[in-house]
Task: inverse folding
């Protein structure tokens, strides 16, 4: 039996982690086997990589190095967690995946979509999301939310235009991949957002083998 792979995307402060948690709990309530993970990270090796990418002291990290580190974390996660769980018929929820690299490195860092796709081919090994939930919140609102927390990391310290390009990248990806992307206005209250997500996920599950 083949499971389903659902990814969550959005800029900082869009509420992804909260929504991954809520969908995970809902699926458990329904006795649907689910695994929740995140990028970069999600595996022991991936969490080491996350320490490098998030460390505020790593100011000399180049855009290309950053792109490879994200892909390296992904390669490990695909092989250690995502593919085995899908093969067991589970629903896999991932807080960020390939679209984060396309938006942040491809657009935010100006490396381009093509280069990021090419660089990730080996990492992905043909594992691709069935559904991508894009929590749509403009950078200004996202940042106001994020600044209310104490979790400021290296990627939170970039210039505003970087986030504007990243956000533009996401909206472009959503348009280019209309079938796979489910765009939710994340400025609504948490319960409204999770209600919309649950409706969409139910459709996916009805259409699949689960
Ligand atoms: P988060 O866990 O708070 O979402 O932080 C992850 C950060 O890493 C966020 O700033 C986006 C960034 N990131 C990339 O730049 N490229 C990627 O491929 C991934 C997965 C994350």
Result:
């Amino acid at each position: 039996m083949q499971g389903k792979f659902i990814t969550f995307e959005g800029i900082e402060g869009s509420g992804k982690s909260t929504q991954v948690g809520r969908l995970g709990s809902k699926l458990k309530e329904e006795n649907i086997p689910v695994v929740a993970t995140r990028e970069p990270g999600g595996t022991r090796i991936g969490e080491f990589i996350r320490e490098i990418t998030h460390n505020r002291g790593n100011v000399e990290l180049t855009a290309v190095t950053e792109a490879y580190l994200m892909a390296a974390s992904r390669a490990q996660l695909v092989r250690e967690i995502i593919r085995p769980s899908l093969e067991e018929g589970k629903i896999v929820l991932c807080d960020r995946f390939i679209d984060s690299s396309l938006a942040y490195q491809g657009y935010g860092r100006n490396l381009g979509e093509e280069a990021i796709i090419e660089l990730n081919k080996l990492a992905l090994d043909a594992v691709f999301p069935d559904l991508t939930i894009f929590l749509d919140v403009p950078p200004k609102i996202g940042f106001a939310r994020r600044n209310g927390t104490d979790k400021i990391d290296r990627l939170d310290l970039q210039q505003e235009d970087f986030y504007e390009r990243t956000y533009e990248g996401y909206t472009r990806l959503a348009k280019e991949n209309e079938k796979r992307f489910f765009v939710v206005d994340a400025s609504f209250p948490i319960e409204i957002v999770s209600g919309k997500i649950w409706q969409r996920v139910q459709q996916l599950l009805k259409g699949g083998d689960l």
